[in-house]
Amino acid sequence: MPSKELNDKLQITMRKVEALGKRYVALKEEKKQMERTIESQELEIAALKKELAQLRIDNEFLRVAHTVPRDPEAVARYKGQVAKMVRDIDRCIKQLNA
Predict the structure, then answer these.
(1) What is the pLDDT of residue 17?
(2) How far lies 94's CA from each of 15, 40, 68, 82, 90, in Å?
(3) CB–CB of 85/57 below 8 Å?
(4) Which candidate, 5, 48, 73, 84, has a CA 20 to 30 Å from the CA of 24?
């Protein structure tokens, strides 16, 4: 009789080990999927940050453009500011491409 009890306990333990093994494999796959999701979201965040930076530049340009007075001296001054912004943007683009 003791060997039957021992055999039953062994069978139960083996089933539990098998279940734990399956659970381990499932959790490992879930972890991989979550890592892929995180990577995808990090790429999306980077793209959104880049877009936000560009929108801020556009906003600044529009703000300056709407405050341009009609006198020639002010127009020349604002043209200089716009030219500086364009140079700054070009410099940033070069840094991003480097």
Answers:
(1) 95
(2) 61, 25, 29, 18, 6
(3) yes
(4) 5
Token pair 């060997």: residue = 3
Q: For residue 76, what pLDDT band results from cuts at 50, 70 and 90?
A: confident
Q: What is the DSSP string of 40-73?
A: HHHHHHHHHHHHHHHHHHHHHHHHHHHT--SSHH
Contact yes or no for 64/78 (Cβ under 8 A): yes
Cα 48 from Cα 63, distance rounded (Å): 22
Q: Would you state the structure tokens that stand for residue 74, as one six-digit string?
A: 């002010």
Taking CA atoms, 97 is separated from 23, 47, 71, 78, 91, in Å, by: 45, 15, 39, 28, 10
pLDDT in tens, 33-54: 999 999 999 999 999 999 999 9
Gap between the Cα atoms of 75 and 58, Å rounded: 19
